[in-house]
Amino acid sequence: MANKPPLTGKFPLTRMRRNRNDDWGRRLVSETRVSVDDLVWPLFVIEGTNVSEPVKSMPGVERLSIDHIVKAAGVAVDLGIPAVAIFPNTDPKLKTPDAVEAFNPDNLVCRTVRAIKEAHPGLGVICDVALDPYNADGHDGIVRGDKVLNDETVEALCRQAIVQAKAGCDIIAPSDMMDGRIKAIREALDTDGFQDVRILSYAAKYASAYYGPFRDAVGSGGVLKGDKKTYQMDPANSNEALREVAMDIAEGADMIMVKPGMPYLDIIGRIKNTFAMPTFAYQVSGEYAMIHAAAANGWLDLDGAMMESIIAFKRAGADAVFTYFAPVIAKKLNDKK
Ligand code: PBG
Q1: What 3-state DSSP class applies to 209?
Q2: Gap from CA of 212 to ligand 1 centroid (Å)
Q3: Alpha helices in 34-101 (DSSP H)
């Protein structure tokens, strides 16, 4: 990543535009590249067969039944996308105050993981760990009174991580922001023989307005009571993100996530510079929706805005990006070759 540049010269001896004069010259001095290897494709799974339901607020994104998810996984493999991330739209009847569906070994996520791994064993599969898809009140943790309980939630998260690992998940991605969950999940995985299952910690996850379309996609928005500010971070804070990351590294995280993405490029940069860890960014649903909405109005060029957003993540220091644009970007990059 960029060091502080030395003062290089003075006009007219130095003309910065010389290096921008032609396409080949610009390519030679280009500092950042995006590759298909940098992409993770988030997928929404729903019960049923042959179901593909458009998510209204996310043009081009659909909730897919397992048979279609397996096909999408095949598309990811063909495009060279290294991994997919699975998010369930859980039947509202299965949502309870104790979120027990989270650790049902035959829940929608576990069945999806098994189906993908059977068809495409070489594709990385990432599972979210958090209780919101299964919780009657839409929170990531167990709620009692007006409190989201920490330690009780961590126990549930460990059980959730174990059923996902048993189903064949490669990377467990806790997005719940409870304290101490990385160590607890690491120990639970190790005890059950899953030493090689990785943990991608959503270490710096902010209480953001940009998750709206996602909650629509998984059906948790309508049920959410209140907000997530007692566990997700305050958008005003940056030092706190470093403390979160330091703790999660000490607890055994293999990779770090910053979320949302574009409004938090400074956080990505600081984390990468401070810890030199594999650092991922999540270009969340609201960011995707904004670009599409502006493009649909003719106010932005979709391709241009999409590619610029991804290069910005890489320039900030992200090693990989979770993005709903993943297949479109991958196709574009592959077509260029
Ligand atoms: C839930 C979770 C959320 C997202 C990923 N996992 C939403 C939330 O915290 O409410 C958001 C992803 C997106 O907006 O694309 N733990």
Answers
A1: helix
A2: 9
A3: 66-79
Give yes or no: 259 in active site.
Answer: yes
Give the model confidence (pLDDT) of 218-234 as tens digits. Answer: 888 778 989 999 999 99
Q: Which two tokens stand for residue 252?
A: 């055994």
Query: Do 218 and 89 contact (CB within 8 A), yes or no?
Result: yes
Residue 19 lies in a domain: no
**Does the annotation count 147 as an active-site position?**
no
The residues, any chain, with a CB within 8 Å of residue 102's CB and separated by 6 or more, are 131, 133, 134, 156, 159, 160, 163
Q: With the C-alpha atoms ordered 276, 277, 278, 283, is the resulting torsion angle positive or negative?
A: negative
Classify residue 137: in a domain, yes or no. yes
313 C-alpha to center of ligand 1: Å? 19
CATH number reported for the structural domain that contains residue 103 in this entry: 3.20.20.70
Cα end-to-end span (Å), the chain: 25
Residues 332-336 have a mean pLDDT of 95
Provide the H-helix boundaries in 80-227.
Answer: 108-119, 151-167, 181-191, 212-218
User: Scanning the structure block, which residue is given the tokens 């739209």?
Assistant: 89
Q: What is the DSSP letter of 308?
A: H
